[in-house]
Amino acid sequence: xxxxxxxxxxxxxxxxxxxxxxxxxxxxxxxxxxxxxxxxxxxxxxxxxxxxxxxxxxxxxxxxxxxxxxxxxxxxxxxxxxxxxxxxxxxxxxxxxxxxxxxxxxxxxxxxxxxxxxxxxxxxxxxxxxxxxxxxxxxxxxxxxxxx
Length: 148
Hints:
mainly beta
């Protein structure tokens, strides 16, 4: 598990250290629902990421995250995610994919979402993720964050 934490910390440090230009760092909190096999539970998490401009209408980004299903005994799920999408006025429409690390249950995830600018520094985000194979879970979350 120490390797996973070191990997996430390194990715976050690289994202923050990247040149500013029109690129931007972001930090967010999120919450929503996770479902699998007929069961539904609340989920909450945090993320730290960095988006890079890929022209006037596109972007790519990286994100390190920690999410937890809010039930006794559930492990924190650590994630490293890449995302790419389109800039649409005050918003960003994106697809995302990456790798998830949990206590003995490492897994791939895919998803997508929309991020909308509320102010020059604040945004609101909705996202869906599907975790495959071992975890085999879906999540739908709403988040609020700041850009820096």
